[in-house]
């Protein structure tokens, strides 16, 4: 349960073919994410953030280059990688327990240890008494907690989080940020978060990758200062250096937007 994996992205380019021709969504991305690291990907709309997650999950294979997990080439989706999205995609006709067990069912895992782990996770997320409830009886924040349990139930080494908080109100979002970081760090999971929210990225991450568009490339790879990393996301915002880093990342966004993408050089 505490297994962690590295992600190695080497010389990755992704070209999409559409009616107008070809479009380079990502160009020559080299990135290594360490076991247990929490990394956020930020950047303007269309810079290739979701494409990068799709490549790590094995839903897409890169046009060139390679994506590996602990040195093993990823060519198709693998249970080692869990994916959590903005929408919870819970089945309305299934109870909460039945929803969180879906991934286990698909993998044919009906063993007692897996069931016990699901019960433990539901309790940890404050959902124990809702195991027999249906999704419509839960708030948006609770439903995202259910989605987190469903993702963790199959014990992936890596979690990909694609804007999982964007549909939530501010207070719920802050609470869920805390819960996710605590839960993933306690289990040593490697995590990659895509977000448009700079302060969320700083508060949750060990490292932040800034992408620039047209074509998508790495503009900056920023390590979050230690005092901020050590703090829970809710308190990270009060730490020294938080606002300075926010301003630095904000100015990178402005630079990319001024140049309309395709900007070279460091911020
Ligand atoms: N299947 C596809 N076919 C053609 N073009 C695509 C496809 N998927 C994505 N794109 C294009 O590739 C670029 C990168 O898309 P992607 O969704 O990865 O960006 P993003 O940074 O996640 O954007 P957003 O922040 O708006 O979600 C965009 O210009 C998008 O229109």
Automatic annotation (TrEMBL):
GO MF term (any one): ATP hydrolysis activity
Family annotation (Gene3D superfamilies): P-loop containing nucleotide triphosphate hydrolases
CDD domains: ABC_NrtD_SsuB_transporters
Superkingdom assignment: Bacteria
One Pfam family, short name: ABC_tran
Keyword Nucleotide-binding in record: yes
Annotated TM spans: none
Keyword annotations: ATP-binding, Nucleotide-binding, Transport
Domain ABC transporter: 7-238
Protein name: ATP-binding cassette domain-containing protein
UniProt source species: Paenibacillus validus
């Amino acid at each position: 349960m505490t297994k962690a994996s590295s992600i190695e992205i080497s010389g990755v380019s992704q070209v999409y073919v559409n009616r107008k021709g070809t479009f380079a969504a990502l160009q020559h991305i080299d990135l290594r994410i360490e076991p247990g690291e929490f990394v956020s990907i930020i950047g303007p709309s269309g810079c290739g953030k979701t494409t990068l997650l799709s490549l790590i999950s094995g839903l897409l294979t890169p046009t060139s280059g390679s994506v590996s997990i602990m040195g093993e080439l990823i060519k198709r989706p693998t249970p080692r990688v869990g994916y959590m999205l903005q929408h919870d995609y819970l089945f309305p006709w299934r109870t909460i327990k039945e929803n969180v067990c879906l991934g286990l069912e698909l993998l044919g895992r009906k063993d007692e240890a897996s069931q016990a782990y699901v019960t433990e996770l539901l309790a940890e997320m404050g959902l124990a008494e809702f195991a027999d409830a249906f999704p419509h009886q839960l708030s948006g924040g609770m439903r995202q907690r259910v989605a987190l349990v469903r993702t963790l139930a199959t014990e992936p080494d890596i979690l990909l989080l694609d804007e999982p908080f964007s549909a939530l109100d501010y207070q719920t979002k802050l609470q869920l940020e805390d819960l996710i970081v605590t839960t993933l760090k306690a289990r040593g999971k490697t995590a990659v978060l895509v977000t448009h929210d700079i302060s969320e990225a700083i508060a949750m991450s060990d490292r932040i990758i800034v992408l620039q568009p047209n074509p998508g490339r790495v503009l900056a790879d920023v390590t979050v200062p230690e005092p901020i990393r050590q703090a829970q996301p809710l308190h990270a915002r009060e730490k020294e250096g938080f606002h300075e880093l926010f301003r630095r990342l904000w100015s990178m966004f402005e630079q990319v937007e001024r140049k309309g993408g395709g900007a070279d050089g460091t911020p």
